Amino acid sequence: MSEILRIRGGAKLEGTVPISGSKNAAVAIIPAAILGDSPSVIHNLPDIDDVYSFVKILRYLGAEVEFEHGTMRVDPRGIDRFELPDEMVNRMRASYYLVPTLMNRMGRAAVPTPGGCNIGNRPIDLTVNALTSLGSRVDTTGGVIRAEKTGDFGGSNVYLRVPSVGATINTMLAAVMAPGRTTIFNAAREPHIVDTANFLNSMGAKIRGAGMDTIRIEGVPVLHGSDEYWVIPDQIETGTLMIAAAATKGDVYLSGTIPTHMESLTAKLLEMGVDVQSEDDVIHVRSVGDHRMIEVTTAVYPGFPTDLQQPLTALMTVGWGRGRMTETIFENRFRYLDELNRMGADVRLRNNAAEINGVEKLYGARVTATDLRAGAALVVAALMAEGVSEISGVEYIKRGYEHIDEKLRHLGADIEYI
Ligand code: UD1
């Protein structure tokens, strides 16, 4: 029988919780490590299924990988394969970061088109165009991305139609070893882009401007392993736990995080009447009394992240008045609303916005997570609901949240995997 997350709602979260390393940085930095001509050591990796998937994939390719207590040592020198079978990548969007890295290492790559969460159409045209403009031959027929260096492989100007995280990272991963200069215009600016660029620079790459909308890269012929690299804290785990603290009218300190990455969420929680304060690497969230209804629109960083759209919507279901959550990044990221309504919420989808009529309380129910962040939304809803909820589809949650049950239990929640 498959696993279920069982939560009895109503407990106030209190105490201190440490934040784990960033999933989205980890899944870019691990494949980047295969570009080195010597081993890399990466610290502060989250203990999540997506990281274990990469361990399997890199070993299959021929790398030596050790992973223990959040630290991974990758020795890519034995890699002798450039092709990945379907079953290895079927759940993970980030598997396509192996296209430019394998191409740089082996001259060519063949990676099945990526899976990941079912949140709408997730095209890869920007990555294909970028690799092509750098002089690679790319073919995506038959469900496989095949990329090969040609004699023209070299730096180029890459204009992104939208500031895509995946396309920005893939372009960097290819351009770091493409002779000459590459400039990425309209690049994404998310914290994990900066972290990936910092990691590549620690391997000897020459990237400037990551975190801004124009990134300049000078290609180098050889990269070495990175001796000791520490991955940044997870922005989305931080946000989810901030929301969970507010949802239970709790009093929680989140430690080992980067408060400046959280400014868009902090602004929205303050608007709702939640008390949020930060000092150094600690954020303190405290909530007493009713929450005010707000309007939120997702946007690229530093705007409000689409990955927190679902958990914040869950928090907004309880309260007085009407609120609205507008999704501008992914078309199909509202499938969890039916589940929230089964728990007593009153939310209606109109075009790309969830219109929320605040209710007095939610009630525990059997619900199903349809993707990673929808799972997080249901956890938030279950924590504030009266009675017991049973959440299925927990494999999504395990892909991206490190030991969420232990962390919430430590804060006083009644939660267990059964
Ligand atoms: C990454 C994150 C994911 C987050 C998302 C947006 C990882 C592993 N995943 O996903 O958690 O929700 O950023 O912050 O880091 N697009 C195109 N063509 C492309 C690529 C994207 O049209 O080739 C569009 C997408 O349909 C979407 C938008 O660009 O509307 C943003 O997608 P993108 O930033 O690429 O998201 P991911 O990298 O897949």
Overview of this structure, please?
The chain is α+β, with helices and mostly antiparallel strands and 418 residues long. The protein has 2 domains: 5-19 and 233-417, Alpha-beta prism (UDP-n-acetylglucosamine1-carboxyvinyl-transferase, Chain), CATH 3.65.10.10; 23-230, Enolpyruvate transferase domain (UDP-n-acetylglucosamine1-carboxyvinyl-transferase, Chain, Alpha-beta prism), CATH 3.65.10. Helices cover 32% and strands 24% of the residues. The protein contains 14 helices and 23 strands. It has helices at residues 23-32, 49-61, 86-89, 98-106, 125-133, 165-175, 191-202, 235-247, 263-272, 309-316, 337-342, 372-384, 394-400, 404-410; strands spanning 5-8, 14-18, 40-43, 64-68, 71-75, 108-112, 136-139, 144-149, 157-159, 181-185, 206-208, 214-218, 229-230, 251-255, 275-279, 282-286, 295-297, 322-326, 346-350, 353-357, 366-368, 388-392, 414-417. The protein has a 4-stranded mixed beta sheet. Helix 10 (309-316) links the parallel strand 17 and strand 18 (322-326). Helix 4 runs parallel beside helix 6 and helix 8 runs parallel beside helix 12 (372-384). The radius of gyration is 21 Å and the shape is globular. The relative contact order is 0.15. The model has no long low-confidence stretch (mean pLDDT 95). Bound molecules: uridine-diphosphate-N-acetylglucosamine (UD1).
